[in-house]
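Appendix B, Record 12. Input sequence as logged:
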Amino acid sequence: MSQSWYPEDLAVSPLGTPGTYEFMRTVFAERQHFSYAEFGVYRADTAKTVCALFPNATLHLFDFHQAVEKARAKLSGHENRIYYYGNTDKYNDSYNWSLLKLIESNNGQAMFDYCFLDGAHTAAVDALTFFLCDRLLRVGGYMDFDDYTWTLRGSSLDPARAPAISEQYTDEQIDTAQVKLIVDQIVRRDPRYQEIVRDKVFRKIAA
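Logged structural output:
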């Protein structure tokens, strides 16, 4: 499926996600070396702030090729500490493929200290993303989920604005807060994760 149906502009803040980088300031020192992964970079506003706040952090940024290239241009002064992972707009391609390849190239070893999941917001993609991130997240690291109550209906991807959505999802899926479903039914049920910020940030406390 072509991405031509996808809205050119999404309803996002030009500040990125302050709740994420402000929380990060409470758990990481300014000059600390750590590894940050972000899924769903879009305009790279959150990543740009993370770069500014943590000059020694390594960033791993995942999104469609188009978004990745725009992020690369916006973050051009930080080339030596950012890794980019782009995927195509083919229907069954996503950053999960990039994650699987990264697990393969890293021999299954954990490498992330913080994973910010702000991508598809759907169970079909992001439920698997959580399990793949878990394989790469170090004990003591954090999983951060954006938009706990977000639904396709009423968003920039409402079928009224993007008709192809009604071809891809059932009405139940369109009206369900799918990030909430992932958090409540998978993450909260995993005793290896401790909730740190309500409905958003979970710390991995055991392998």
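The helical segments are 18-27, 45-53, 65-74, 95-105, 123-136, 165-168, 171-175, 178-187.
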